[in-house]
Amino acid sequence: QTYKNIEIILIDDGSTDNSGKACDELAQTDKRIITIHKKNDGVSSARNAGLDIASGNFVTFVDADDTIKPDFIQTLHDNFEDSVDMTVCAYACVNEKNETTYLSQKTKNEKEIFSREQAIEIMLYGKVFAGHCWNKMFRKSLLTGLRFNTEMPLYEDLLFVTEYLLKAKKVSYASECLYNYFARTTSASRGKMTSSKLKAFDALNVIDSKLKANYGSWFDSFVNYDRAVWALNCYAILCYDKKNRKTYNSFLKKQIKDYGNNKHLCKKEK
């Protein structure tokens, strides 16, 4: 990274290959690197372990199979201002063939400043940036008492970022693509349909209640959009998973019936 004054915390979340050993060897070559070895307990637990010992003024997350551009830290760090509490950059989704399958939407300017309310709307709509924690930088001071919910296997990062934004003032967005997300076909949000995928609706219900407590019905249409989109995503999985269609069809059908008639879902892109 072009920005050198960093603390790198590597979380070995119960890996069964040589990853833990590789982390220890890297730590011996660079005093900025710290390795934590723990039993496998999921991504939220791993991220929380890092947050518990992070000592810097700012925090960012990088998933193990993703890549970042050399100026990722520099750009996100430099875009903080007195009233800015979170910085974000554009990202690309990359598949196993190293092909770019998605590139986040560009804004009119290379750098944009959004209010808290604008940022929440944009995040829930997910066209410019979404609720991922990995293409963002956070103020450590605002993370006090805030951790990832280990009971939520999906949308745990959207819940985390929503809770953070409720404590933040403004958000700075850089339209330069600095983060490459590896979209593995066997990731938690893909593969066969299971009951754990319905946990995403639990996370959205928690998000809904927290936003309602602060803003009433302001964000209802955006949360409902996410409910409908996730239901459609589950239906897409069931197209290739005939065995589980009967099990989940009635629940998903109700989600579509309740939330499918949504102005954001039906909105035409300019």
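the 2nd protein, sequnce then structure:
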Amino acid sequence: NVEKFLKKCIDSILGQTYKNIEVVLIDDGSSDRSGCICDEYANIDERVKVHHQKNRGPSVARNKGLELSEGEYISFVDSDDYIEKNAIEFLLSELINNEADVSACAATLIDIDGNSRKYLDDKDYILDTKEAIYHSMYRNTIGSVVWAKLYKREIFNNVRFPEGKNAEDEYIVYRLMANSKKTVYKGRYLYNLIDHSSSLVNSGKGNRDMWYFDAWCQREDFLRGLGYSEYADMTWET
């Protein structure tokens, strides 16, 4: 139900300087015109494919996108956000040039009145597996978010989003970083994050602490299993 934002989102993806892309749109049971807008784009651009399903939440939608996509690389754009026109070209270039498994960029946070502020750091990092896990937990760079990144597809071979849970990014970003031998972060502001009161992040706050608690319990166990006890011990630090 993001018809007010959806066209800007899709236009920003189809208008990328890197043209060889596949755009998978998942209509997760929208009751507004979002589903119709998706179909309109599929009718005018052969790069677009659409899947309509009953509302089952963001994790199921993201997993369905992974299932339907055929590309060598994966990126996520939330349907109320948008990306700069060179985002994919830049992320792909950094991934290839650095022989990395994941490349990430900075984001700008924009409120509904159009006011913006820098959301992630403008620094540059080349990270090994352990460093990338740390940055996903405690640094304002990789972060526990799946957007603003380009992944090699195989990074997801044994990772899927947890169905029936929100704050779904918190459950898997550290796992993706554990699968990445090298992650490159460049502080270029190429992802635009729209902050508005109807978003899932800003709604259902009573349940949000429960989701985070569950996700962090799983993260602690996972990190201990990898032998990263010092990071597991840091899980509950704020």
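The two ends are 34 Å apart (CA to CA). The beta strands are 23-28, 48-53, 73-74, 82-83, 102-111, 116-118, 125-128, 149-152, 182-195.
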